[in-house]
Amino acid sequence: MSDGTALTGETIPGTVLSIDAMGGDRGPSVVVDGMANASAKNPDLRFIVHGDRPELERQIDRKRGLLAKCEIRHADSVVRMDEKPSHVLRHGKSTSMWSTIEAVRSGEAQVAISCGNTGALMLMSMTRLRKIEGVNRPAIACLWPSRNPSGFNVMLDVGADIRADAEDLLQYALMGASYARNGMDLARPRVGLLNVGTEEHKGRAEIKVAADLIGRVAPAADFDFVGFVEGVDLPSDKVDVIVTDGFTGNVALKTGEGTAKMISERMREAFKHTPLSRIAALLAYTSLRRLSKSIDPRRVNGGVFLGLNGTVVKSHGASDATGVAAAIKLSARLSASDFTKRLAARIAQAEHAAAAAMQTDADKGAAE
Amino acid sequence: MSDGTALTGETIPGTVLSIDAMGGDRGPSVVVDGMANASAKNPDLRFIVHGDRPELERQIDRKRGLLAKCEIRHADSVVRMDEKPSHVLRHGKSTSMWSTIEAVRSGEAQVAISCGNTGALMLMSMTRLRKIEGVNRPAIACLWPSRNPSGFNVMLDVGADIRADAEDLLQYALMGASYARNGMDLARPRVGLLNVGTEEHKGRAEIKVAADLIGRVAPAADFDFVGFVEGVDLPSDKVDVIVTDGFTGNVALKTGEGTAKMISERMREAFKHTPLSRIAALLAYTSLRRLSKSIDPRRVNGGVFLGLNGTVVKSHGASDATGVAAAIKLSARLSASDFTKRLAARIAQAEHAAAAAMQTDADKGAAE
């Protein structure tokens, strides 16, 4: 707060975002570019930016009017992509990531954003912000391009934890429904459970138990449970929230990304193939741009950590400025809806319903 | 064999395929269409066709010259898509699926093909054909469009079994490498293990153990182990064979399918959007057709059951004639390379290497 870039804090209207400028694959310049883009569209946004001060000052100063909206907080070191989360937690106090989370913890900022090491960010967020009462495993939710009116579905967990038992899956359903309600304006989200088939007898034991639990809690928790969905339904309009464990969700997310990328490449090749197809590409330029935008993973950049006392948005490690701007936009929207508090209230309310459902199970089990 | 459609059997050169004409979503007519397509390109193929005789005779008789290449075997009933595999196994002797597998069991046909209920087909195949000595869990392998010269990668298991421990994953690596070697002419396939990250410390415990086992067996088993791969690598040219459990593999397969389908739809919409883009679509017609063919899931139709005494090819339930023809072509190729026997030999050979590796583990564990 020493160099004229200080933020006047509580008195400024609008949202304050805490941004880790260092952790991404492409360095701080794309983060600053993304901040500038987002700031141009949403002039009320304020930023606390964490990282190497001289570098950040140079970068931010290049963008007209941005410096006045930023407070720069110097951090000596950076969490590397290949560092073990547990190691980062022990030795990471001087990192830009730590500092980014602290600004949310202290209440100075409403949302933390980082392009850095996902595992470290999750572990640090869990340790510093702590889990919401009643949540066993936090989850990362992503937006998935779909045929729904909003253009997206929510999927969780996409990588916070590689395990999830039936109760965790129930909590993911509650958290995902709350996210869809507050972040996407869906009064009564439809929740589906990812499985290898839609028939009742299919899938792992914990998934069958989870289906039963979620179905029983749904009415009281104001969402509709549509039962099992398959991989092919992820982009469909059958469902708004897709619940799965973090291993499966992460593989599905990256598979969708890889498939879309390969098809885009082949499309570009196809249009270079003959002189006629080159002319075609020119004629269809605007249509193709629209298509490419609608399947662009950068547009849906931003995994949201759910289940913590504070909102943390993980931007893709390889994000460019467009991706960072998307993550900032998402963060601003979540901050405006104050959804962390609403989610906590939902979890508390649903806990009773779930406990009752599981007690019934236990009683039945004992009677059998 | 009563009605002039009899096959003269051993004296005819070429491959005899046993085809379940009944189990698919679209009924026997698409199966017969697919047989006709495949037969036109490969006139040496002979078929034993199972299902409702009057219906099949009528359908096959419509195709010039096809009846002479077919033997029709009547079956009273059909396995439904929603039937439980265990129920089918107990009551399924009169079904076309059962009859289809019996023709391979008896040695009359080399490969069985069905578009029916996957779980029932797998359980019936396992029970009737039995597992190869040394194989604990058979697997279903699929071909995945990729940037490799062949245009495909192999992924397994995509749904034979929802569980897989470290030893199962090792066997999948051996079976997948053998499939790539015999079915795709790759002398030294590159095998990768699907995980949520490529760093060594990531993933479930059984996956880390499997990575160690596969790495140690690879040199003796004539494949290269490239370590962990992620969802985004499935269509890449980093790897030829992707090993995973059947739950994850099935979700990934269907996610890729769903993503490709959504993008194709949006592409069609984009080209209808303006008069200019409609003209563009005409100009780029051949390029777009080539693109659409290269990402068409029907072209890679045919999951191969690996690890059984006999080859079974599962065609997609919603296959059209193009899809059925692709499954028949794949079956003919597998029959020609006689790969079930080669695979059995590989498993037997590698079993010793694996046992040695695991013994070393046990010794180390005891010493620690």
UniProtKB/TrEMBL annotation, chains A, B:
<dbReference type="GO" id="GO:0043811">
    <property type="term" value="F:phosphate:acyl-[acyl carrier protein] acyltransferase activity"/>
</dbReference>
<dbReference type="InterPro" id="IPR003664">
    <property type="entry name" value="FA_synthesis"/>
</dbReference>
<comment type="pathway">
    <text>Lipid metabolism; phospholipid metabolism.</text>
</comment>
<comment type="function">
    <text>Catalyzes the reversible formation of acyl-phosphate (acyl-PO(4)) from acyl-[acyl-carrier-protein] (acyl-ACP). This enzyme utilizes acyl-ACP as fatty acyl donor, but not acyl-CoA.</text>
</comment>
<keyword id="KW-0594">Phospholipid biosynthesis</keyword>
<comment type="subunit">
    <text>Homodimer. Probably interacts with PlsY.</text>
</comment>
<dbReference type="GO" id="GO:0005737">
    <property type="term" value="C:cytoplasm"/>
</dbReference>
<keyword id="KW-0808">Transferase</keyword>
<dbReference type="Pfam" id="PF02504">
    <property type="entry name" value="FA_synthesis"/>
</dbReference>
<keyword id="KW-0012">Acyltransferase</keyword>
<keyword id="KW-0963">Cytoplasm</keyword>
<dbReference type="GO" id="GO:0006633">
    <property type="term" value="P:fatty acid biosynthetic process"/>
</dbReference>
<protein>
    <recommendedName>
        <fullName>Phosphate acyltransferase</fullName>
        <ecNumber>2.3.1.274</ecNumber>
    </recommendedName>
</protein>
<dbReference type="InterPro" id="IPR012281">
    <property type="entry name" value="Phospholipid_synth_PlsX-like"/>
</dbReference>
<keyword id="KW-0444">Lipid biosynthesis</keyword>
<keyword id="KW-1208">Phospholipid metabolism</keyword>
<keyword id="KW-0443">Lipid metabolism</keyword>
<dbReference type="GO" id="GO:0008654">
    <property type="term" value="P:phospholipid biosynthetic process"/>
</dbReference>
<comment type="similarity">
    <text>Belongs to the PlsX family.</text>
</comment>
